[in-house]
Amino acid sequence: MRADARRNLDKIVAAAAEVMAERGVGAPMEAVARRAGVGVGTLYRRFPDRNALIVAVGDHYVHTMAQALDEATRRTRDAWSAVRDFVSWAAEPGRAALATALAELPQETIVDRAEFARAREQWVRQLGGLVSRAQAEGSMRTDVGVDDLIHLLNVFTCHPGTLPEPVAADPGRYLRLMLDGMKATAATHAPPG
Amino acid sequence: MRADARRNLDKIVAAAAEVMAERGVGAPMEAVARRAGVGVGTLYRRFPDRNALIVAVGDHYVHTMAQALDEATRRTRDAWSAVRDFVSWAAEPGRAALATALAELPQETIVDRAEFARAREQWVRQLGGLVSRAQAEGSMRTDVGVDDLIHLLNVFTCHPGTLPEPVAADPGRYLRLMLDGMKATAATHAPPG
DNA sequence: CGCTAAGTGGAATGCAGAATTCCGGTTACG
DNA sequence: CGTAACCGGAATTCTGCATTCCACTTAGCG
Which residue of B has its CA nearest to A184? Predict the structure, then answer.
């Protein structure tokens, strides 16, 4: 594969991640091409159909996510701070793009891609471990779980286009509000059941 | 106006509210018609264009909202509980529909409808008063405001289609988490500056 | 009960925007 | 330099929605 082709391919995946975050996985192929600074022809040569592109974005996402989680874990002593750090990182602009894959793909095509599933499962478990530790350390409510965390991450991070503008502008602020609600001291209500 | 026509008109507004909540104000007219159980012809006879329909939905929304707020305020002594009550009410299934109007209309057409603007302003102010009282009573963080509350309501209540399924299924749970994060005791961070 | 104006559904039409193809023109690199 | 690998984007086809129109029903008056 020629060097320039390789470069374009990377640009395309990055662009696709961004565009799909903004407009959903069904975003026009041409929008992706334009954002990547290539022609539609180039896009189609590399990714025969939309699914192929989605798969690429999904892989990219899962990989990046796991890596960030690793770092957050390694950097901090207490679990709660690590969770906080990771969430803040994930909410940063540009990261948003990646989450779309996670949010919308399950219904599409990636689910049955073993490799993707495994990678995703890995970082979810990793985050889950952190949550458990935080709860064991008594710094996090026990009536919320990893899934809640992930869902909320998705809510504030996917489809920025459908979010009220101020929220889209600083999802981190709201995510942190959410985290404050998840702290052990914040619990006011009986656990669900 | 014939009785059956009247019935259909009501069904249409209700359906439009639902559909617009799910798919945005630009939702296909046919989808609205189908949901309402009428033909597109009927829809167009009553509402010559999309705007007319949006206006109807918007009015319906604002009116319902103000009323609910009234009740919540009247029913409870302390402001924080009233806020809680109102938010819970607004998150109930079926209510979601209405919020879209608020979230997307300003850029569209309704803004210049004095009546709508006034009604909206009224209930926002009303909720704002509640928030101020809650803060004065020391039960709510002072680094968040009415706008935050409204934005979050919109996030969890509009476009249920773009929300992760569990969140769409019970937005109230997450909204309450959020409220817990807004309680005075939950503040961990310096107010934004 | 019968009449008719009011009301109805949905097929038909027109169009905007997106998907996908194709190929004459470039460019990396042996 | 030569050429196989790449490009961009015009051209064409496809899809989905808005909007119109009219033959068919029905509420409700006399």
Answer: B186
